[in-house]
Each structure stands twice: as structure tokens, then as C-alpha cells.
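Sharing in case it's useful to others searching the archive later.

Someone asked me privately for the predicted structure of Amino acid transporter transmembrane domain-containing protein, so I'm posting the question and my answer publicly. Question first, with the sequence:
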Amino acid sequence: MPDAKPKIPDDVEAPRPVEDSPSQFGEILKTEQAPHDAVFGELNEDGPNYRNVGWLGTVALMMKTQIGLGVLSIPSVFDTLGMIPGVVILCVVASIATWTSYMVGIFKLKHPEVYGFEDAGALMFGRIGKEIFGIAFSLYWVFVAGSGILGISISLNAISSHGTCTAAFVAIAAIIGFCFSSIRTLGKISWIAWLGLASISTAVLIVTIGVGIQDRPSSAPQVGPWSSDYKINRNPSFADGVSAVSSLIFACSATPAYFSLAAEMRDPRLFTRSLVIAQAGSTIIYLAIGIVVYYYCRSYVASPALGSAGLLIKRISYGIALPGLIASTTIVLHVSNFLFSRLKTESNKFQLPSKYFFIRILRGSKHLTSNSMIHWSTWLGCTFSATVVAYLIASGIPFFNNLVSLIGALLGVFLAYQPTGCMWFYDNWGSRDVRNWRWMLMASWCVFIILIGSFMTIAGTYGSVVGIINSLKDGGTKPWTCADNSV
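And my answer, the predicted C-alpha cells:
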């Protein structure tokens, strides 16, 4: 029997087969040269298959990119905003996130050479746009990885009842993240996404049930009468309000990762199907958890939320959630790959377009899709660099809620909102002479997205920084401390 051949996507440019080649659809044929992908270059049997993620695997990766870190801050966001404003703003943010993510899929189909936001920035704004969006993209995912490492350290502290110095747990979390994120292709880590999604969903379900059946939250007074003092509406300060909204934006918008997911799908035309399923599922989970946990805990809700339902349930939920937290950290470290260097290719030109910096370094070189020493040393160097920076962030900003809010405001909004509005204008500006009501409506919507994104970037960052300063003044967890960060 002939050896099985890996399948290639429909949009990969396949070379002319030689005589006697099998012609079964979807197979790599015996060819005079390897098939060519607009991002990864030549695809051959000797290197990794980067185009190997199915639409269901994409659903898992999308949901895991969102659910795992953002969901853990939602009950405390409801505590800041109040029940009704929290639900309404969450639905609005999730709807906007669906549109911005949809634009990523459409832009990728129209411009198959795009792998990440730096490529989109180059198309729209030239070299300056490429550098700004590329650095912002990498920093965003390294910051998210930092919050993942912080979440893992909290989990290890909770499970072990503060078994050792927190600084040691942070280092252990970073090592775990480095090991798993060193797997080279998204297709090979989609199983991690499924495992992580199942574990984190189970953990938050346990907490949600736990707060409903127990007498009172673990941090509430344990003697005397008690009832939840949840509020339908609250009046937070400006800084607290924009910080809370930034946390919701972080929870709902995994948009910066979606170019990479679309690029590694076997059929990017199914991107929208995966997006709708993932966004609907994550929003329903967010609403259920946010409403129930906040209703029963109110001002005694913990952040992350897994610590809200008593010591025993806290340890159980963190133990079950641990694979999910590891999965989140793995995926975002994998996508970011932070190494500011460039490799001169055989064509004697510097190739600058992303797993961000890994593909930026090796794009256009034969080493991108080979198993050479240069390929492996570059890949591990990128992953290690990203992990080190994420570790420093997790150690230096040890406040989970404030860190999540800062990420959402400073970088999440900037990547998810403004660029996607600009993408629509880039692809549709040439048809402005039509000027029908649909064009005008979409143009107005995109202007709104760009403006609201700019406002939230500035205001949300201000609110998050104020929150971090207040947490330090109030005697919260100090940077690089041995103190228990799970209490």
C-alpha cells in the first residue's frame, strides 16, 4: 500500500502533478515541487503541517482562548456595575466582539497572505502600521500569558493550601507554560484546548452550584444571619466603571488570536461557523456564571471567582480548573512567541511579516517548514522569550482583576476594535461612489467602532492603573512575594 499523504487545504496552490499521480481530492499528489501556501510557503512531508485545524478544533481553540481567564473576573465586574448594567454591557460587548472577529475572517479570505495583525497593518498603513500592530499583538498575548501564569500560581496555592512560596509557584507555572507551548502547530495542541475548555467549564459549574447550595460565601461572616446584598444597579466611580468594562472586553474579545487560527484552518471559509458557535457558547456561559455567582455572593465574590464557594469547593474547583488555566497559557504563549530578531533569508532580504515573531523571523526561508536546527532553535528561543516576559508580568502585577482589566484596555481594545473598523474601510472604500444606505450604515458603524475603541483604550487604561495603585495602597499582594495569593 502507498504511504498515507497529509491533506492540504483547498486554498493552497498545488503544483501540476506528474503522470501516474493519484487524483483523489484532498490529497497531496506526487508532484514536481511541494504545494505552496500564501503564509507558510512550501508545504512538504518533511516538515510540520501548519494547515491542519478543523472547524470543530477551531471552535475549541476560540472558546478556550476566551473562557479560562476572562470568565473568572465576570462576577466581580457585576459587583462593580450592578446586575442589570452588567448583563446589558456584557451582551453589547459580546455582540461587538462577534462583529470584529467576523471582520478578521472576512479580511483573511480576501487577503490570504495575512497571518496576523502586523500583516493587516502593513496592507492598510504600510511599514508603520506593520510595526505598531505587530508589537501590540505580541505584547497583548504576552500580557495575557502573564495573567494565565498568575492564575496557575493562584490555583497551585489553593490546591496545596499555600504549600510553598508564591514566587516559586509563579516560576513553576512559567515552566509548565513553556513546555506545552513549545509544541509547534495549533493542530497538535487543539486537544489541549478541548481538555482545557472541559476542565474550566466544569470548575466554574461546580462553583456556580456550590454558591447556590451553601449557606453563605466563604469570605462572608460565618456566624449570625446573612443574606446576599446584591444590587440591581450600582453607581461606580468613573475609574471603577471603565475598568470593569475593560474586563468584559478582555473576556469577550479573543479577536487578536483569530488571524492565526484562520491561517491554520484546513478550510478558512468555515471560520464564521466556528466563530458564531464559539461566541454564542462563551456568552451564555458568561451570563450564567456571572448572574448566579454574583446573586449569591455579591460583595463577597472572589476574583478569580473560583474562590467564592468555601474552602473545600475552592480546592476542588481550582484542581479541576488547573488544566484549563494551563491550556489558556499554552495557547497564548504559542501564538505570541516574543523574540525581536530577524533572520536573513536565502533571497538576501529580511522577511518581516508572524507564530508572531517565529514566522516573522523565518518567513520566506526554507527553515520555516523544515525540521532544521535553525527552525528548532528559533522556535524554542521565541517561546522561551515570551515565557520570561510573561513571568515578569505575573510577578510584577499580582492582582488578577486589575491585570485582566489593564490587558483589556491597553491592548485588547486597541487590537480588537480600531483595526477591524479600518479593515472594512480598506476593502470597501473603493465602492464609496455607490453611496447607498447599506454602505453609509456600515461606514457609520465602523467609525463608531474606531471612536469607542479609542475612548476605551485611554479611559480603560487610566481606570486600570488607578485600580492597581489603590490595590497597592490597600495592602494587597505585593510583587515578587511569598504571601498566599489565593486568599
